[in-house]
């Protein structure tokens, strides 16, 4: 039994202390040693959601061996036919990609670092999708009826918007393209970006972030007030930020021309925590901002999601000085992108460039000190469960992948426990003062 298998088995045992070891071993084998998948297989069996004849819990060893072989062959086949099946998750795709990489060097072309380092990993394989239709949404009432977003035009005073654009165009000359290795392949982001932190965060150390210039602080305050005013009328989820939303960091993106883009992703939750609000300001050339639901994710959320389907792409033109607010659970149930375009209109200040500033709230309780580190020493990523019985839960896993490009670290986020830990830390801090 390999070390990794043994470690994974120990993890599974911790998750299911009452389970028979044999059942966990089978689940682990069927899942190709993927803990998340193995947990689901085990639970499905245990809860009898699998037809009794197909269940393995009652089988004796020889029959069990042939059951495993048969199942593994079935799984391989069904994954070939339906690579976009609802059972497949981001979590699985990471491992799938590692395997595919060995067989298919043309995957290199599809790699995109934005999806990997800054944003959660997207599948590296070409997936069969059901046919999609694109619906262009212009009016606020249509946008909020169909997506978890809100669009506000002319959000900043004209002069402020123009001067912020000029400042950011200058700053963007030194923005960088994220670059790194994924499974041995060099991947590069299709636009440049830079992180900024607001002045009240100055006491916190951060690697190579810049500080909000005064115009960005002003924009932040205006956007923060709009969001907080809107929140008075909105449902506040239990685990989202309580009290006022107070953005303190921003990712600034620069799209130099019509072909620069950001691929389908949802924003990283690791330091924002569950159900974040993201206020996204557009400056310069108008571009199409596109949204789609996660494939087959069951909805437990807004009215908007009930009227939508993963096969529809909603495209919203983002004009200069417009704000799109991504409300929760946009990052949990939806993906967004800015796709390359064939033509764009020249902007009087920006030419063919677009600047985008996404204001976000970094939450102390999701700071690096609170984030688990995997067995290879990498800071883990916080991810939501997209579908199945565990929707609504969050877990930590590793995206970097360790030395072999594969890491099976897995830990559920216990939100209530996290709250208690943070309370204790705060009490200690106030005592010290
Ligand atoms: O440019 C945009 O409008 C979107 C940028 C984005 O999705 C991000 O920074 O995460
Ligand atoms: Fe994003």
Automatic annotation (TrEMBL):
Transmembrane segments: none annotated. Residues 246-363 form the Fe2OG dioxygenase domain. It holds the Pfam family 2OG-FeII_Oxy_2. Residues 374-416 form the GRF-type domain. PROSITE patterns: FE2OG_OXY (PS51471), ZF_GRF (PS51999). Keywords: Metal-binding, Zinc, Zinc-finger. GO terms for biological process: DNA alkylation repair. One of its GO terms (molecular function) is dioxygenase activity. Signal peptide: none annotated. SUPFAM superfamilies: Clavaminate synthase-like. InterPro entries: AlkB-like, AlkB-like_sf, ALKBH3, Oxoglu/Fe-dep_dioxygenase_dom, Znf_GRF. This is Uncharacterized protein.
């Amino acid at each position: 039994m390999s070390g990794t298998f043994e470690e994974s088995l120990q993890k599974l045992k911790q998750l299911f202390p009452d389970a028979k070891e044999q059942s966990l071993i089978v689940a682990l084998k069927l899942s190709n040693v993927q803990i998340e998948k193995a947990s689901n297989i085990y639970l499905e069996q245990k809860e009898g959601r699998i037809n009794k004849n197909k269940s393995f819990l009652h089988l004796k060893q020889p029959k069990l061996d042939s059951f495993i072989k048969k199942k593994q062959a079935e799984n391989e086949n069904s994954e070939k036919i339906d690579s976009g099946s609802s059972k497949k998750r981001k979590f699985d795709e990471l491992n799938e990609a590692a395997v595919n990489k060995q067989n298919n060097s043309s995957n290199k072309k599809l790699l995109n670092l934005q999806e990997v380092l800054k944003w959660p990993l997207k599948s590296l394989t070409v997936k069969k999708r059901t046919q999609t239709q694109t619906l262009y949404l212009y009016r606020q009432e249509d946008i909020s009826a169909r997506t978890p977003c809100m669009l506000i035009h002319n959000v900043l005073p004209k002069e402020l918007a123009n001067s912020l654009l000029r400042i950011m165009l200058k700053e963007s000359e030194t923005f960088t393209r994220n670059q790194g290795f994924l499974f041995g392949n060099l991947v590069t982001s299709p636009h440049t970006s830079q992180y900024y932190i607001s002045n009240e965060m100055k006491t916190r150390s951060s690697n190579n972030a810049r500080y909000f210039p005064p115009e960005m602080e002003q924009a932040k305050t205006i956007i923060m007030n709009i969001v907080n005013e809107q929140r008075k009328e909105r449902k506040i989820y239990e685990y989202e930020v309580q009290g006022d939303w107070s953005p303190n960091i921003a990712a600034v993106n620069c799209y130099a021309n019509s072909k620069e883009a950001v691929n389908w992703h949802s924003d990283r939750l690791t330091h924002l925590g569950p159900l974040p609000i993201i206020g996204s300001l557009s400056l310069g050339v108008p571009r199409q901002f596109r949204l789609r639901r996660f494939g087959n994710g069951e909805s437990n959320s807004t009215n908007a999601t009930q009227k939508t389907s993963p096969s529809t792409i909603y495209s919203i033109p983002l004009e200069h000085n417009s704000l799109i607010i991504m409300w929760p659970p946009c990052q949990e149930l939806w993906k967004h992108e800015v796709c390359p375009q064939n033509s764009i209109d020249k902007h009087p200040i920006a030419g063919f460039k677009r600047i985008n500033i996404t204001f976000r709230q970094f939450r102390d309780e999701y700071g690096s000190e609170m984030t688990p580190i995997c067995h290879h020493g990498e800071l883990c990523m916080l991810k939501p469960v997209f579908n199945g019985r565990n929707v609504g839960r969050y877990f930590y896993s590793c995206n970097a992948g360790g030395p072999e490009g594969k890491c099976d670290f897995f830990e559920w986020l216990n939100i209530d426990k996290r709250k208690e830990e943070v309370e204790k830390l705060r009490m200690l801090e106030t005592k010290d003062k």
